[in-house]
From TrEMBL:
Domain of life the protein comes from: Bacteria
Species whose genome carries this gene: Streptomyces olivaceiscleroticus
Spans annotated as Disordered: 154-195, 524-553
Entry protein name: Sulfite oxidase
Record's compositionally biased regions (Polar residues): 524-533
Gene3D superfamilies: 2.60.40.650, Oxidoreductase, molybdopterin-binding domain (3.90.420.10)
Keyword terms, alphabetized: Membrane, Transmembrane, Transmembrane helix
One Pfam assignment: Oxidored_molyb
Length: 553
C-alpha cells in the first residue's frame, strides 16, 4: 500500500514537473518575444493559427457563444490543452526522460511553425520565441525528472513491478542508482528526494514567473509609446462637418438602441488576439498597384493636413445573425478615400481603370477587398482617424481604419490599415474570401426588434414595440410589424438621418393575453422589402425576419 502511494506520488510529481517545464517554456518565450515582437509569443501565434484555420461556421458559432470573449476563451483553451499535454509528457518522463524532454522541443517546433505561418509574419525570426522557450522547457523537464524520488523499485505493487522489469531504456544510472539504494521512506514520496524535487520545481516556477512578468512589462512598455502617441493626437476640425441631424432621429424609448452608439458599446469583430498598438508617429500608408500612376506614401500628419470630412454611418458585420448585435452607428472623421485614390492616378473601372479591387492590408496581416467602383462612386468612403470625436480607440483600428458606407465590415472596414493595393478580383482573394465568404458583400436591408425583449412577460393593453432598421446608402422607406402571422402594420418611423445610418421605428401594439410572436420587416428606398427567406451569415450576410416571442397576461 505504501508502495502504491509512492508510485502515485511519483506520478503526481512527474506530471507536475511537466507542468512546471511547460510554464517555464512559455515564460521564457514571452521574454524572448520582446526582442522579436509580442505577436510571435507561442500562445498568441498558435491562437492566431487556429483562428486562420477555423472553418467559418465554427468561428461564427464561437462569436455567437462567447461574443467578444471568444479570444479569451480560445487562449484559455490553448493553455488548457498545453497543460494537459505537459502533464502527460511529465508522466512519460518517468520512463523515457529523454523522449519526454524532446517532446517539449516538438511543441516548440509547432509554435514556431504557427508563428511563421501567420499572415502577419515578419519571417523566420518569429520562430525564435517558441524555439528558445522550448529548449528552456526541455532542459527544465530533464533536470526535474532527474530529481524525482525513486519509486517503489523492486516492490510488489503493480506499477512498480512492471518498472523493475527493465523497461526504462533511458533511465540515467546517476539518477536512479543512488536513490534506488536509499531508505524505503523515500519511496513514500516524503523524503529528501521529494523535497529536492519540490525545491527545484519551486525555484524554476519562481524564476519563470519573474521572466514572464518581466517580458509582459517590456511588451507593455512598447505599447506605452503607442498610448502616448494616441494621447498626443489633436484631431483638426472637419472641413466638411457632419450634416445636422434632423429633429427626432432618436425616439429615446426605453430599451431602444440609441441612434448613435457610444464608443464603449460599439461591437468589435476581428481576428487579432492582441490588439495592435501602433505609434501614429511611425505609421505609414502605402498606395500602389495596378493602374496607380502616382504611388503614394502618406504619414499620419500628411493625412490630417488633407481635407477632412465628418459623417454619421452605421457599420454592420456580415456575421451578424438576424436580430444580432454586430451593428453600430458612429460619427466618423476622416479623409475621403476617393480623393486620395484620384491623386494616386487611379480611375474606377467605369472610367477605364484597370483595377477593380482595392485590397486593404492591416499590420496584423488581415486583407479586405473592396470594389474600386464603389469606393469612387461618390459615397463617403473614408480613411478614418476619428470616432465619436476622439482618435480611434486601439480596438477600432488606431491610427487609421477604412470605412465604406453600405458594405459589410469584412469587405471594407480594415482596421490598423497600412497598405492599399489596387488589383483585380480575378487576381487576388482576400482573407475571408479564401474562407468561402463572398467577394462582394453589400449590406442587406434588415430590421431588428429591440423591445420588448424575447420571452418578456407583458401586461395586456398598449405595448410599445420598437427597434432599428438599416439599409445603408439606400435609406429606410417603411417598417412593418405583425403579430402571429396576422396582417402587417405600418410602424412609425423616426426621422431619417443621413442615408448611411440606420433608422429607428416604433409601433403601439394593442396586446391581448396569450403567447405571441412579433415579427418585423423593412423596405428600403429602392422599394425592396427585406426577404423572409432565412439565410445564415455565410457567404454574404444573414436574411429573414427578426421575430420575438412574448407572453401577455
Ligand atoms: N485588421 C482587421 N480589420 C478588420 C477586421 C479584422 O479582423 N482585422 N475585421 C473586419 C470586420 S469583419 C468588421 S465587421 C469590422 C468591425 O469593426 P469594429 O471592430 O471596429 O466594429 O472590422 C473589419 N476590419
Ligand atoms: Mo465582420
Amino acid at each position: 500500500m505504501k508502495q502504491r502511494n509512492g508510485e502515485l506520488g511519483r506520478r503526481a510529481l512527474a506530471s507536475s514537473g511537466g507542468l512546471v517545464a511547460g510554464y517555464a517554456a512559455l515564460a521564457v518565450a514571452e521574454l524572448v518575444s520582446v526582442a522579436v515582437r509580442p505577436e510571435a509569443s507561442p500562445v498568441t501565434a498558435v491562437g492566431g493559427a487556429v483562428i486562420d484555420r477555423t472553418p467559418a461556421a465554427v468561428k461564427d458559432w464561437a462569436i455567437r457563444q462567447f461574443g467578444t470573449d471568444d479570444k479569451l476563451v480560445l487562449q484559455l483553451g490553448i493553455l488548457g490543452v498545453l497543460a494537459v499535454l505537459a502533464g502527460v509528457l511529465g508522466l512519460l518522463g518517468l520512463r523515457y526522460r529523454r523522449s519526454a524532454s524532446a517532446g517539449v522541443l516538438l511543441f516548440g517546433v509547432a509554435g514556431a511553425v504557427a508563428a511563421t505561418g501567420r499572415p502577419d509574419t515578419v519571417g523566420a525570426v518569429d520562430a525564435v520565441p517558441s524555439l528558445v522557450g522550448a529548449v528552456a522547457g526541455a532542459g527544465v523537464l530533464y533536470v526535474l525528472l532527474a530529481r524525482l524520488p525513486v519509486g517503489a523499485g523492486g516492490g510488489t505493487g503493480q506499477g512498480a513491478g512492471r518498472k523493475t522489469e527493465g523497461s526504462e531504456p533511458e533511465r540515467e544510472p546517476e539518477s536512479a542508482e543512488p536513490e534506488r539504494s536509499s531508505e524505503p521512506e523515500r519511496s513514500s514520496g516524503s523524503g529528501p528526494g521529494r523535497r529536492g524535487f519540490l525545491m527545484a520545481a519551486g525555484a524554476v516556477t519562481a524564476v519563470s514567473t519573474g521572466a514572464g512578468l518581466w517580458g509582459r512589462r517590456l511588451n507593455a512598455s512598447a505599447s506605452v509609446d503607442a498610448e502616448a502617441s494616441r494621447a498626443a493626437v489633436a484631431l483638426p476640425a472637419p472641413d466638411s462637418p457632419a450634416p445636422r441631424l434632423p429633429r427626432g432621429v432618436d425616439l429615446k424609448l426605453p430599451g431602444l438602441t440609441p441612434y448613435r452608439t457610444p464608443t464603449r458599446d460599439f461591437y468589435r469583430v476581428d481576428t487579432a488576439l492582441t490588439v495592435p498598438r501602433l505609434d501614429a508617429g511611425r505609421w505609414r500608408l502605402r498606395i500602389h498597384g495596378k493602374g496607380v500612376r502616382n504611388p503614394l506614401t502618406l504619414d499620419f500628419d500628411a493625412l490630417l493636413r488633407r481635407r477632412l470630412i465628418e459623417r454619421d454611418a452605421t457599420m454592420t458585420c456580415v456575421s451578424n445573425e438576424v436580430g444580432g448585435p454586430y451593428v453600430g452607428s458612429a460619427r466618423w472623421l476622416g479623409v475621403p478615400l476617393a480623393e486620395v485614390l484620384r491623386e494616386a492616378g487611379v480611375r474606377p473601372p467605369s472610367q477605364g481603370g484597370r483595377a477593380d479591387q482595392l485590397v486593404a492590408r492591416s499590420v496584423d496581416g488581415m486583407t479586405l477587398g473592396t470594389p474600386v467602383e464603389t469606393v469612387m462612386d461618390g459615397r463617403d468612403a473614408m480613411l478614418v482617424v476619428g470616432m465619436n470625436g476622439e482618435p480611434l480607440p486601439f480596438e477600432h483600428g488606431f491610427p487609421v481604419r477604412m470605412l465604406v458606407p453600405g458594405l459589410y465590415g469584412y469587405v471594407s472596414a480594415c482596421k490598423w490599415l497600412q497598405d492599399l493595393e489596387l488589383t483585380t478580383f480575378a487576381a487576388y482573394d482576400t482573407y475571408w474570401v479564401e474562407r468561402k465568404w463572398a467577394r462582394k458583400a453589400p449590406i442587406k436591408t434588415e430590421s431588428r426588434i429591440d423591445t420588448p425583449r424575447p420571452f418578456a412577460s407583458l401586461k395586456a393593453g398598449s405595448v410599445t414595440v420598437a427597434g432599428v432598421a438599416w439599409a445603408q446608402h439606400k435609406g429606410i422607406e417603411r417598417v412593418e410589424v405583425r403579430v402571429d402571422d396576422g396582417g402587417w402594420h405600418e410602424a412609425e418611423l423616426a426621422a431619417q438621418g443621413p442615408v448611411d445610418t440606420w433608422r429607428q421605428w416604433m409601433w403601439r401594439w394593442p396586446a391581448k393575453p396569450g403567447t405571441h410572436t412579433l415579427q418585423v420587416r423593412a423596405t428600403d428606398r429602392t422599394g425592396a422589402t427585406q426577404t423572409s427567406a432565412r439565410a445564415r451569415p455565410i457567404p454574404d450576410g444573414a436574411s429573414g425576419h427578426h421575430s420575438v416571442v412574448v407572453t401577455v397576461t
